Amino acid sequence: MKWRKLTLNTTTEALDYLGAIAMDLGLEGFEIEDNVPLSEEDKKRMFIDILPTLPPDDGSARVSFYVSEDTDTDKLLGDIKREADDYSELCDFGKMTFDVGLTDDRDYINNWKKYFKSFRVNERLVIKPTWEKETPLITEGDTVIEIDPGTAFGTGAHETTKLCLIAMSKYLKKGELFMDMGCGSGILSIAAVLFGAGKAFGFDVDDNASRISIENAGINKIPAEYEKDFDGCDIEGIKDGSILFATGNLLDSKDIPHALEDKKFDFIAANILADIIIPLAPYARKLIKDGGIITCSGILTTKEESVVKALRESGFEIIETEHMGEWSGVTARASV
Fold first, then answer.
1. CB atoms within 10 A of CB 208
2. Distances in Å between the alpha carbon of 34 and those of 8, 59, 80, 145?
3. How many helices, marked H, and strands, marked E, lie in the chain?
4. 15, 219, 253, 301: which has the fewest C-beta neighbours closer than 10 Å?
């Protein structure tokens, strides 16, 4: 299969905003080229003897998106530019010119893997790609999640996923019922079970993500099942220590899907986008127990206040906010 590679000429300042736009438009991953000098941490994680020589950093960057060959690229480029206009007062997006090319399926699927290495999220959690043979940073007592994201979003390396994982390691209790709104590669549901959750339910609007989540659960020796939509979900029937993944969109209806009615979760994670978290907040409150915890990320710091406001208006009390780069993580407790 052939894929179209759309390469956007932009600025390093705009990268986080373009990441949010890509997620909003359902683009399943992107590639960044820039001349930003490598940090000491970057150098240690590259595992090579001769470091690349970069030209002077002029603030420019190139972002490449991969889409199917039959995608209407003119419409997609127009959508990207339209959403970028919403952030134009916050940063400089640069030239915003595009190049369009073709690439083989094997190039798109596999070439990025050489840049994804094991890394430590915090003192108790390490994320490891399935293809990495040796992982010296793993120590006794670590919780290790093996992941192969395929074409789904979520290696755990992005700040938004880290923010959720760190909040989960703090607040998730053993035996709790966990929900992952927008499961991506399944990494948060997998982490929840490894942290001791009794059972987990994850869903995504992208059916490909739900299926990849099943595979990643298996890699981590966690039993998982799949339902094509909410109607077939049996939350009560999820076995202890296992995960149910489904495809669905809570925002398709004003009402909670029948299969989720009267179901109350102890902990909800939502690593999506501020503009999706805000309308989802009332649904989350209906689906969580009094005193239950929700942790949200995928929130640009410029939209943190809007998310906090939506959570409070939906019946949550904010207990913590954390920041990494341009991203915010908000953790709240359902009011009793």
1. 13
2. 12, 8, 20, 29
3. 9, 15
4. 253
Identity (one letter) of the amino acid at 86?
D
Classify residue 14 by its DSSP letter: G
**Homologous superfamily, domain 163-334:** Vaccinia Virus protein VP39 (3.40.50.150)
Domain residue spans of the chain:
2-112, 163-334
Q: Residue 65's beta-bridge partner residues? A: 6, 30
Q: How many CB atoms lie within 10 A of CB 183?
A: 31
Give the pLDDT of residue 157: 45
CA atoms within 13 A on the CB side of 216: 36
Considering only CA atoms, which of 335, 289, 293 is closest in space to residue 314?
335
Q: Report the topology of domain 2-112.
A: Alpha-Beta Plaits (3.30.70)
Residue 13 CB-density burial (10 A; 0-12 exposed, 13-18 middle, 19+ buried): middle
Give the predicted TM-score (pTM) of the model. 0.68
DSSP H or E stretch at residue 275: helix 274-287
Rounded to whole angstroms, how far apart are CA atoms 54 and 11?
Answer: 16
Distance CA 215, CA 150 (A): 10
- Given strand 97-104, what is the order of strands in its sheet? 30-34, 60-68, 2-11, 97-104
Residue ranges for the chain with pLDDT beneath 70: 1, 28-29, 38-54, 103-116, 148-158
Structure tokens at 104: 């083989």
